[in-house]
Amino acid sequence: MAQAHRIVVKVGSSSLTTAAGGLDADRVDALVDALAKSRKDGAARRASVEGGGGRRVGGGEKEIVLVSSGAIAAGLAPLGLRRRPRDLARQQAAASVGQGLLVARYTASCARHGIRVGQVLLTSDDTSRRAHHRNASRTLDKLLAMGALPIVNENDTVATDEIRFGDNDRLAALVAHLVHADLLVLLSDVDGVYDGDPSRPGTSRITEVRGPEDLAHVEIGSAGKAGVGTGGMVTKVEAAGIAAAAGIPVVLTSAVHAADALAGRDTGTYFHPTGKRCADRLLWLQHASTPQGALTLDDGAVDAVVTRRKSLLPAGIAAVEGDFTAGDPVELRDGEGRAVARGLVNFDAREIPRLIGRSTRELARELGPAYEREVVHRDDLVVLHS
Fold it and tell me: Where in the chain does DSSP place strands (E)?
């Protein structure tokens, strides 16, 4: 953890604002102070290694990407709202007012340390559409190369599903993969995952998680009572699982312990990596894409796709539903309607009915060589249930 060079830090609304809404300047400054110290300590450590004749691990100070919630919460008080509204229009209005206040506060706070700030607003399209995905990656890489601190948030003023579910935790895991981070730090108002309600006597903090089985019998709490955030511990644990499965270690702790987490000291709950880094498109396909339709497979096709990890051919399709075009993500379902995989389809929805149950050779003879191909190629497919 202490040797991590590129780190993604996510902070929630409740760690930045008052319960009534509005930014807490002292909390923002404390977080920025911890980030600035980590960046400088990383530079000093590398200079010491180089000066002592050791092998250079990486150049310059630590690189940090901040994924920050708080736009909606910051906009509540200025708009005279007592708590987070339930209707989408007022949420978007609060985000519109609050996002400017949030970035302005970060800019002023970072200026105390001579750190430049860059705002990056993302929606799920930016992590699920390949062209947007590449653009976001290039922007973040360039900001880091130029010494800036990217501050990432969901584009709540135009988001729909994202704004309702408080997905900045999941976004942080995807951003960590997007920028090839060495560490993901999830900051909350609770100092880790507990084996019960942390407000009750007798519960204890879980210091390490080596896999999902370590939390199988743990009841994870929901969002706090303040009413300014939406994620809660559930989305943080899910985000930690996403990152860990992609080979990225995760520390989940409270915002007041941010400096300890960034320095590699014992704090919070540490999630060990459980998998290896995969292709970017497969991670967003599994965790960020929104299926535009579904293909029902026969038993043979389910076995081929799920067990033998083969491509989906027209002969294995039993039914199609939805209105999608070639390149869209679709669910692959078994005969009982359970989603067993997700993939990028090579045909429009209107084309598939005449392909169902037929061999690619037959289709090529009748319709041309363009139809002698997979409906979903195995390189563009992720298995959800085996």
Answer: 6-11, 63-68, 117-122, 149-154, 183-188, 193-194, 205-206, 208-209, 250-254, 269-271, 293-297, 317-322, 329-333, 339-344, 381-383
